[in-house]
Amino acid sequence: MYNLLVMGAGWPESESTFTTNRIFEYTDDPLIVTHRRDGEIDFDRLMRYPCLFMPEIGADDEVARVGHITRVTPHGRGEVLIEYTYDTQVPAIDLEALARVKRELQIADFEFTRTHWALKKVDLFRAMVRSLPPRRNRPVVFQVNEPPQIDDNQMSAMMPFHPAFNEVYQTIQAVGAAVGMQVNRADDIWIEHAIIQDIVRLIDRSRIIIADCTGKNPNVFYEAGIAHALGREVILIAQHIDDIPFDLRHLRAVTYHNNGEGRSVLQTKLEKRARTILGLPQIG
Description:
By secondary structure, the protein is α/β, with parallel strands linked by helices. It is built from nine helices and 14 strands. It folds into two domains: about 1-130, ph1033 like fold (Roll); about 150-280, 3-Layer(aba) Sandwich (Rossmann fold). A hairpin with a 4-residue loop joins strand 6 and strand 7 (about 80-85). Helix 6 (about 165-180) packs parallel to helix 9 (about 260-280). The model has no long low-confidence stretch (mean pLDDT about 90).
C-alpha cells in the first residue's frame, strides 16, 4: 500500500497544506471504507504507508520523491497541514520515468494532471525496484545534473587550448550560429574552482559536442568519454584519421585540413551533421 500525493506546482521541502475533499480521489471504494474511522479520514493509518510525492506535469521541476508523512493537523476550513520527510536513500524520479511504469504503480494518465491524494494497493518499493531501470552510482570526481538539464541551444567544443586551434574554434562557432546555437569551450567560462567541473557542466548541458582529436590530446579523449557516457551527441573531428583512437574508429569522424579551404569544408560538413541531429532542413 502507498499514498500517491500529487500537487500542481510540486511539493515544498517539508510541509504543505492540502484540501481534504481531494483525499481519496481515484481510490478504490473498499480502501476508502477501511481507512475511515467514525466517518473521518483515518490519518494515523494512512501515515503508516510510504508516499510518492509527485508534481503535476508542467511543473518547473518534474521530479517525484519518495517519503513518509510525519504529522497531519487541521488547518482552517476544509484543509489539513501535512508534514513529511523525503527518503534520502531513494533518488528523485523524473515524471517521464514514472509514466513508463504507471500501470505497475496503478497511476492513470489523468492523475498526472490532477492535484489529489490517492491510496494505492501496491507495494511501492517492490514495484519501483522491478519496473524502474537501475541507477548508476553518482560520480565522485565531478557532479552532473539529475535529472539531466540539456540546453537545446548549447553546442560545446572540446579541443586543445592552443593558438593553433583558434581558427578551428571560430569555424565551430560559425556552425553554431548557422543553426541557432551558442558555442562555448571550457576556457570561455569560469564558474567552479575546479576546471573539470566547468568542463563537465558544459558537456552536461550541451545538445551537441564537437571533439577535436587532433594530436591525440588526452584531455579531449577524457571529455569525449564523459560526453558519450552521458548520452550526448558527439561529433569527432581530426586533422588526420590516425588521431582517432582505434576504439573510436567505428564512429563517423570528420577529417579536415587546418587552412582556409579546409576549414570551409569542415564548416559545411559540421553544419550538415548538426542540422541532421537537430531535425533542421538542409541547405544547398
